[in-house]
Amino acid sequence: MANQPIIRFENVTKKYSDETTVLDNVSFELERGKFYTLLGPSGCGKTTILRLIAGFIEPTEGTIYFNGKNINNVPANERQVNTVFQDYALFPHLNVYENIAFGLRIKKVKKDEIDRKVKEALKFVNLAGYESREITEMSGGQRQRVAIARAIVNDPEIILLDEPLSALDLKLRSEMQYELRELQQRLGKTFIFVTHDQEEALAMSDEIFVMNDGVIQQSGTPLDIYDEPINRFVADFIGESNIVAGRMIEDYIVEFTGKRFDCADAGLQPNEKVDIVIRPEDLEISTVDTGKLNVTVDTQLFRGVHYELSTYDQDGNEWLVHSTKKAEVGAVIGLDFNPEDIHVMRLNESEEEYDARLESYGASADEE
């Protein structure tokens, strides 16, 4: 079926011999021809998912489907998957041509076909004419392209990328992000990319899976993940966030910092305790008389395209502000924002923890 997912995880758990659970009852589906990113901190389980898809390890529980077929016991060399590793895993004693041709030679592909496929792959990654170049003579970005060419030359249905840009400098990394995205769109293949870099994930992906402690916290488009984080972890991990305790008074009315504000959220219980997220770039500096919040400027840094202000309100809540306007350290300023800039999240903590957080800001839950 055309709409059948190319990969489906059904209640997949992975434990190691010491009973450490690295993936905990995970289920998801991946569509064909999209760029997916598994995003999260070290040890969250994202590389484990990659290794399970590749066939390097087997699940402890659950089932992995490829085009609707159970592949739990299918060996790695029989899967229509190729992996680009973090260190590229290129053979230093082989030149560019032989590195790319290696997998085809193992499969005993005819010489003319190997030559055609290798040259086609090199052209695809903008390395035509580099066939005889030694790997040791290649830059980091060029080695990256060789590793990708070696992956696509076998015409796999899925290409797995395990933090392949982490060793590159910032400028080259940015360039390779564009190249990888463009390559995926030209190939029309399913790419599954692993990274802990939030900006990288937001820039490249059709869909992001945010992971922590072996569980998928949230999945969605980059815009969904950034604008509507589902919990504190996602909000804090994806970009910079201001997160404060609040209460959903009723649909489209929320209360925090002792004041009530219009918002764009609905569907929660009246007076439900919530977390409020406002992104730093959504806060505008205004006057004390016109601002919705009044804050004191603690520090100010110039970041090139904007000033980054660390501020705090009278309850001790910290507010990070990104603005093209400059402010004076120690000054009291107003902050303005629109109803749609307020993102309301259900709590992922107990009421006791919530109340303790309020008290730490100098306000009790009763006062709220």
TrEMBL record:
<feature type="domain" description="ABC transporter">
    <location>
        <begin position="7"/>
        <end position="238"/>
    </location>
</feature>
<keyword id="KW-0547">Nucleotide-binding</keyword>
<dbReference type="GO" id="GO:0005524">
    <property type="term" value="F:ATP binding"/>
</dbReference>
<keyword id="KW-1003">Cell membrane</keyword>
<dbReference type="InterPro" id="IPR013611">
    <property type="entry name" value="Transp-assoc_OB_typ2"/>
</dbReference>
<dbReference type="InterPro" id="IPR017879">
    <property type="entry name" value="PotA_ATP-bd"/>
</dbReference>
<keyword id="KW-0067">ATP-binding</keyword>
<dbReference type="InterPro" id="IPR050093">
    <property type="entry name" value="ABC_SmlMolc_Importer"/>
</dbReference>
<dbReference type="InterPro" id="IPR003439">
    <property type="entry name" value="ABC_transporter-like_ATP-bd"/>
</dbReference>
<dbReference type="Pfam" id="PF08402">
    <property type="entry name" value="TOBE_2"/>
</dbReference>
<dbReference type="InterPro" id="IPR008995">
    <property type="entry name" value="Mo/tungstate-bd_C_term_dom"/>
</dbReference>
<protein>
    <submittedName>
        <fullName>ABC transporter ATP-binding protein</fullName>
    </submittedName>
</protein>
<dbReference type="InterPro" id="IPR027417">
    <property type="entry name" value="P-loop_NTPase"/>
</dbReference>
<dbReference type="InterPro" id="IPR017871">
    <property type="entry name" value="ABC_transporter-like_CS"/>
</dbReference>
<keyword id="KW-1278">Translocase</keyword>
<keyword id="KW-0472">Membrane</keyword>
<dbReference type="Pfam" id="PF00005">
    <property type="entry name" value="ABC_tran"/>
</dbReference>
<keyword id="KW-0813">Transport</keyword>
<dbReference type="InterPro" id="IPR003593">
    <property type="entry name" value="AAA+_ATPase"/>
</dbReference>
